[in-house]
Specification:
The chain is mostly helical and 444 residues long. Helices cover 78% and strands 0% of the residues. The protein contains 20 helices and no strands. The longest helix has 32 residues.
């Protein structure tokens, strides 16, 4: 039975715009930090360290955001399952905006010494908390409004907001760095993207305030089918879905951060290529990522989530074997090819995951379940990828260990995808059941 009938065109437009723009704003803030951690934070916040150690330290602060993401996912997942999806989307957007704006005002090591990196870590942690609750709420607003056979398409607008945030943050950094001298960019120009976030948050907030609560949650609330402690329940009964979903996300997420963060550091620090040329290559890759994510997500409505995900992860594993070999040529056309194909494949794998994750859990624990799975996969994927890649390369000054690492995590994600049951035809109002396991029970 299809419990989410076709909505009026105006309602559909408002939902997808709100999900896309809100997601874009959140990820713009998150990825502005990623670009700064590769370009300026090593110099401004860790000036006493060697170039390698400073880069490692900057990427470590970047990783702190991933530590905050599970906490944000648990807190907002709890209230999202108890109070509603819409309110948590507003909280996450405002929280992200405040943290990002404050980073733009933060004094550097030159002005306040060790307190500068300490405050940077604190603000990055709050960024992580905000984005930790953002994804789950945005996905559910999209997917729980969607007709059964269009959940992949609706969910894809959240996924497309991620590369859109990459594109926007990199364009701002690129424009600022082109307009200003290197000295001015390092002195104050890097702050512009962070301060600009206040305007973007205002736009996103005005759109999100116009949203209505999802039909799935309204029905659960009316029937008093809410969990008292959703995160405990989903870990008790749905832990297998959490682990498998998280596992499928490790490789696509890690590859995404290799494209947008580590590749910028690697090509400029190791290969000594022009920074702006590499940023343009990353922009091209991100555009392909955005388009492919939406297309493949819509395709999964017809072909099935599991089949599409397995195909994409196989291709991702194969390409991971040649990615760094292409970068190491130092040829800009081959570097663009490497980045574009990797971004396309990880976007293809990532696109259907919004709908897939939502389909693995029941309404009363769905926000908590998908947030836990997504953030666990983020920590094991993107959270450690730039830091680990930097450390692996510097062991033997070779990209081979990094290549092996990418291939191994691709195999892990592929194994998890093979273990997941197809879910694209599931009625979200009925209990989810896995072979030989009970459904998630509801509590009144």
């Amino acid at each position: 039975m299809n419990t989410s009938p076709e909505l009026p065109r105006s309602t559909v437009t408002r939902i997808v715009i709100a999900c896309f723009i809100g997601s874009t704003v959140e990820w713009f803030d998150f990825f502005a930090y990623a670009a700064a951690s590769a370009l300026v934070f090593p110099t401004l916040f860790f000036p006493g360290l060697s170039p390698v150690a400073a880069t490692l330290a900057a990427f470590a602060t970047f990783g702190v955001g991933f530590v905050g993401r599970p906490l944000g996912g648990v807190l907002m997942g709890h209230f999202g399952d108890r109070v509603g999806r819409k309110s948590m989307l507003i909280v996450s957007l405002v929280g992200m905006g405040i943290a990002t704006f404050c980073i733009g005002l933060l004094p550097t090591y030159e002005h306040i010494g060790v307190f500068a990196p300490v405050l940077l870590v604190v603000l990055r942690f709050f960024q992580g908390m905000a984005v930790g609750g953002e994804w789950g709420g945005a996905v559910l607003v999209a997917v729980e409004h969607a007709p059964e056979r269009k959940r992949g398409r609706y969910g894809s607008f959240v996924q497309m907001g991620i590369p859109a945030g990459v594109i926007l943050s990199n364009i701002v950094f690129l424009v600022v760095s082109e307009v200003l001298s290197p000295e001015s960019f390092l002195a104050w120009g890097w702050r512009v993207p962070f301060l600009l976030s206040a305007v973007l948050v205002g736009i996103g907030l005005s759109i999100r305030l116009s949203l209505t609560e999802t039909p799935q949650f309204r029905r659960a609330l009316a029937a008093r089918k809410l969990s008292r402690v959703p995160v405990v329940e989903v870990l008790r009964v749905g832990w297998r879905q959490v682990l498998l979903a998280a596992g499928t996300f490790i490789a696509p997420n890690a590859m995404g951060y290799i494209v947008i963060t580590y590749s910028l550091s690697y090509t400029t620090r190791i290969l000594h290529l022009d920074r702006n040329a590499v940023i343009w290559a990353i922009l091209a890759a991100s555009v392909i990522w955005l388009v492919v994510a939406g297309w493949v997500a819509a395709m999964s409505d017809r072909w099935g989530r599991r089949r599409v995900l397995v195909i994409c992860l196989v291709a991702l594993a194969i390409w991971s074997l040649v990615f760094f070999a292409l970068l190491d040529t130092g040829s800009l056309p081959l570097i663009v090819l490497a980045l574009v194909v990797l971004a396309a494949l990880q976007g293809a794998a990532n696109g259907p995951q919004a709908a897939l994750f939502a389909e693995l859990f029941d309404t009363h624990v769905r926000y908590s379940g998908i947030s836990l799975a997504y953030q666990l996969g983020s920590i094991l994927g993107g959270g450690v990828a730039p830091l680990l890649a930097t450390a692996l390369y510097d062991i033997k000054s070779s990209s081979l260990p990094v290549t092996i690492y990418l291939a191994l995590i691709s195999i892990v994600s592929l194994s998890c995808a093979l273990a997941i049951r197809e879910s694209s035809r599931r009625d979200l109002s009925t209990p989810y059941r896995t072979a030989g396991r009970p459904s998630l029970h509801t509590h009144e």
